[in-house]
Amino acid sequence: MDFESTSERILVLGIKELTSANAAAVKDDVRRCIRPGHRALDIDMSDVRILDSSGLGTLIALHKVMCQQNGLVRIMNPTPIVEQVLELTRLHRLLEITRQ
C-alpha cells in the first residue's frame, strides 16, 4: 500500500484486498497519515479483488474520521465486485464513487 499526500488530500494506492486479514492494518496505516488539514481521502480500489465485512468496516471508520474534519472519502475506480458490494450495502450513498 502506498500513499500520496498534499496539504488537503491523501491518495491511497495499491490495495489488492480489503478483508479481515488486513483491514485493521489498512485502517491504522491510513489514520496515521491523516492530518488536520486534509479534506479528502481518496482510496484507489482499481486493484481490489476481495472486499468483505471487515473491509467495509474499515471504510466506514475512515469515513467517520474524515467527517470529524469536515472531509470526505472517495472510492476511486472501483472494480465491478467492489462497486457491487458497495451498492448492495448501500454504502455508495455514504461514500463518493469516482472514476478517473
From TrEMBL:
SUPFAM superfamilies: SpoIIaa-like (SSF52091). InterPro entries: STAS_dom, STAS_dom_sf. Residues 17-100 form the STAS domain. PROSITE patterns: STAS. Pfam families: STAS. One of its GO terms (molecular function) is anti-sigma factor antagonist activity. This is Anti sigma factor antagonist. It comes from uncultured marine bacterium MedDCM-OCT-S04-C123.
